[in-house]
Amino acid sequence: MAALVVPEADGGVSVPSDDRGEARPATVWLSEAIVGGLVLVVSLVAWVSLALADLGAHSLAAVAATTACLAVAVAGAVLGLRALSAARRRPPREPAADEPGEAEERGETVASGEVPGSSRRRVRIRVDPAGLVMIAGIAALAGFFFFPGFAYGAADKDPGGYVAHGMEIARTGGYSLRDPASDPSRVPDVEMASPGARFPGVWISHDDVVVPQFYALWPALLATAADIGGEHALTQVAPLCGLLAVCTLTLVVRRAVTGALGGAAPPGAARAGSAAGGADRAAADRAAATTGAAAAEQMTSRCGRAERTWAWFRLVGRTSSRYAGAAGLFAGAATGALLATNMLQVWQAKYPSSEISAQMLFVGALFGVVLALATGSWPPAAMAGVLAGIGFLDRADGMLTLLLAAAAGAVLVAVRRFDRRAVAFAAGLGAVLPHALWQAYSPDANRDYTLINGIPDLPVIAGIVGTLFAAGLLARPVVGRMITSRAARQRHTVSQAERNRRIQLVTGLGVLLVVAGLFALGVLRGRLFGADYKDFEGLGRQRTYDEQSLDRLAWFVSRPAFLLAFAGLAVVALRRWNAMLWAVVLSTLPLLAVYAWHTHNSVRLMWWARRYVPVALPGLLALAGIALGVALAALTVRRLPPRLVVGLPAATALGGLLAFALPQSLPLRHHHEMGGSFAVTAELAALADGREGVYLWPREPCCLTESDLFPAALWLGRGQLSALLPGDESDWPDYVADFFRGFPDSPVFVIGSGADRPRIPGVGLVAARRIVTSLPFWEERETSRPDHATSIPVDFTVWRVLRP
Predict the structure, then answer these.
(1) FRET pair for 729, CA 20 to 30 Å: which of 39, 160, 417, 569?
(2) At residue 776, what are phi and psi to the nearest 5 degrees?
(3) Is the confidence at residue 103, as pLDDT, over 50?
């Protein structure tokens, strides 16, 4: 069978053969075990919290007990499967002459008969002091910028809606609630903020049942935090998720770069320890035996040319383990520092919205994939599948990540590399997917929100996935014949190393040209096609600024960071290919292109930029970190020229990027978006004296008025019913009387702006409380980066309605 060069677990290559040997233990660093374990625990707590909320049984005790049982069950299943696998494993074949280690030292073939990288390797955890120090430093930097989170107790935007829903779950135990004002026997016709919505984000599902607009995973996790420590604990969940996301991406980049640069040498390299290297040497020996010394000399010269070619394609020359370790640490540290100090990351890590949890879940899934590639072990792949599924429970656009995973699976089927790790990923995803599909497509859950976000209906999704895997199955024989025929044609003219490097080089150059072309199109899009517009419901034709997406993103990332990301892509594409590095590229760049073409979001900043936070922002900065890490490692070599020519400019570039980011992010550290809003709703709820009150709010022009900020937060978060007054003031007396009759045991309040008494003929009113305050608010812009805080004045009076 023709040898297939594929990425090995450690970044090397392997040639399948019929030889079998005992696999050496794979290493997981202690820093990876700690951070990965924390991400998994937080993710499982979120999933369990949502499942219990869907059942109407959410409570802190139930979440703790269920999560513990789930963790024990998962650990037992993993250990049981490993024990079963060990029992079924054939004992290693006794070597005929030399031990495998001795053969490797001579460059001879020592290859596994299994799919490369999928052998049943034992995994051990190794203490890595350098990695622990790096992660501690990145965690301290992220914690400095991220904590404390914004105490966002108003419900004017998505974060306030999430917080109010989370407090409702903590209070009632369920993800949905009944709206007594929507019961016609109480109130004949309750006023709606918009068709089907009592307030923004508070959607009527059917009859009097309210299912809040957004997917409920994030609110369920906030509910568990509220059960633990109230509002203060709830507001720290987003910073915690942001910190874990930064640390996890740091480890992803470190592992990928270290494995790529520190793996076995390429086929034909002297003393490489790679199976393919031994294959080329063995081919030279066979040539000498059959055709004489001339043929052997020709084959050996080809191996020498491959070694020289390889030294150039490594971009940094052949690397030692010391250089690879330094490059991995530098790359990880640079990535973590850039992400932790980026303004968008700092904002979203303090902002209680689901983008930051989506980022943590995405990066955690990527970490599991990279770890599975690095160790050849299936449990990290299963973890990645679970996290990817939970990501779809978190946000509707998590479906895009699952479609990318399906496309990758179809390719693995086509090239006959769908091994036990891929099966484990599918199994982990399959454990979560039924719950995610129910939430996304059930009329009792969030079907309307899913479809409004442009996610296709379930039959369409099933058709896309089925088509992808059908194409993969149909392509299997074609791909096999192509590889075999190509190998046969070039067997006597080109060595294995040169043949595969040519394919990788041509394909890598093609990838770079495509990315460069798309970037140029994104930059020139406005000049080529003009301004972009879209018809928005209720607003008419509005600018989307999609033609300026890359320019607007550069306000927060900088153009040099884009150039460094392209340099990082060149490192991945032009050197010997490594599956771990390509996992970073292929999981981020496609979604960056999708969102850069059409962001599907409000054009207001900081609001617009949140779309890039879950996937695109960490992917861009990871590529920039890869380029910086490979260059910074030159500072560790003994020769002076590489330090001056490569290492010093890289250090200067990193310092420049941090100097660009820090002035943007430092003001956010001292900012408290909507600080004091929790106190306002608590003060309002206290007026009901422990009963469920009714609060009637006037319609006011958009935006940031008391009727925008507090009604939904007071209702869902504090359990005090809120409703809008009719737009026509002449209807107010009858409307107030309807609530009097429908809620005879509840105090009824009417809110009026300032100190003015609402004019409601025939209704007695007495002032209960005047609330005057101001709420910190980061400014919003459309054509430049917001850079300072303002404040929202709050001034209204609560009038108690006197019963006749």
Answers:
(1) 160
(2) -60, 140
(3) no
**121 near 24, Cβ under 8 Å?**
yes
**Residue for token digits 């935090």?**
225
Query: Sheet of 177-178: strands edge to edge?
Result: 177-178, 209-212, 202-206, 197-199
Which residues lie below 8 Å from residue 576, measured CB to CB, with a gap of 6+?
13, 260, 266, 310, 313, 314, 501, 504
504 versus 369: which is more confidently predicted? 369
Report residue 463: phi and psi, to 5°. Answer: -65, -40
pLDDT tens digits along 628-656: 999 999 998 888 888 899 999 999 999 99
How far apart are the C-alpha atoms of 526 and 541, rounded to whole Å? 18
> How far is residue 86's CA from residue 717's CA, in Å, rounded to a whole number?
52
Specify the residue for token string 């993710």: 43
DSSP string, 325-340: HHHHHHHHHHHHHHHH
What phi and psi, each to the nearest 5 degrees, are found at residue 211? -115, 110
What three-state secondary structure class fits 776?
strand
Q: Could you tell me the CA-to-CA distances from 424 to 60, 175, 485 in Å, in that order? A: 31, 31, 32
Give the sign of the dihedral formed by CA 411, CA 417, CA 421, CA 426.
positive
pLDDT tens digits for range 690-699: 999 999 999 9
Residue 275 scores a pLDDT above 90: no
What's the angle, vertex CA 348, arms to CA 342 and CA 352, rounded to 5? 160
pLDDT the model gives residue 491: 58
Other beta carbons within 10 angstroms of residue 277's beta carbon come to 30
Handedness of CA 581, 583, 589, 592 (dihedral sign): negative
